[in-house]
TrEMBL record:
GO MF term set: S-adenosylmethionine-dependent methyltransferase activity
InterPro entries noted in UniProt: Methyltransf_11, SAM-dependent_MTases_sf
Domain Methyltransferase type per the UniProt entry, residue ranges: 16-74
Gene3D superfamilies to which the protein is assigned, alphabetical: Vaccinia Virus protein VP39 (3.40.50.150)
CDD domains for the chain: AdoMet_MTases (cd02440)
Pfam families: Methyltransf_11
Protein name: Methyltransferase type 11 domain-containing protein
Source taxonomy: Bacteria, Pseudomonadati, Pseudomonadota, Gammaproteobacteria, Vibrionales
Length: 164
């Protein structure tokens, strides 16, 4: 919600709705709870759909969420994690536990690999226009920066035009 809010400040005539499976107990504005599968908007309602650290939380719905985002938006921006084996998976699980446990968000048992991500977007006919990777999310923390490696973080921009 903070990301959308700051984009709306920077971009003229920017309208946004944030969606999540989390109930709207706090009367958040521009927020809608949904079923985690079917995005509750019409075809090409939005220019951009953003998944910020969401997809790795629900592997069972990754394909339907991206298929739905392809229907609803012209572009998809994904911020997520890449894992490379046991160490990266454990580090990311610990970071997810610290960041999310208090909110009742489930901790994933795996993360996307680069091969999985490539196969996924190819399968769904999405075209990757740009990838920012690696990303140093913790430039001011030596410890976090060493443990949570910059190779674990990526941002990918996808076009939803038909590329199959
Ligand atoms: C790490 S939090 C990220 C929250 C927010 N997007 C952000 O960037 O701060 C992961 C979020 O994914 C949500 N989530 C889990 N499964 C989901 C699904 N199938 N569809 C949409 N959101 C889901 C959780 O409820 C949680 O809010």
């Amino acid at each position: 919600m903070s990301i959308s809010k700051s984009l709306a400040v920077k971009i003229k005539d920017c309208h946004y709705t944030c969606i999540d499976i989390y109930p709207n107990r706090n009367n958040w504005v521009n927020y809608q709870q949904f079923d985690g599968n079917t995005i509750p908007f019409g075809d090409k309602t939005y220019d951009i759909a953003i998944f910020s650290d969401v997809l790795h939380h629900d592997f069972s719905n990754i394909e339907s969420l991206l298929t739905e985002a392809r229907r609803v938006a012209k572009y998809i921006i994904i911020k997520d994690h890449f894992e490379y084996g046991f160490f990266s998976r454990k580090v990311l699980q610990i970071a997810d536990f610290i960041g999310n446990y208090g909110y009742g968000v489930s901790i994933p048992n795996r993360y996307l690999s680069q091969d999985y991500y490539k196969d996924l977007i190819d399968k769904l006919g999405l075209l990757e226009l740009n990838r920012t990777w690696p990303i140093n999310l913790y430039p001011n923390s030596l410890i976090a920066g060493v443990i949570i490696k910059k190779e674990f973080q990526f941002i990918s921009i996808l076009s939803t035009e038909n590329h199959t």
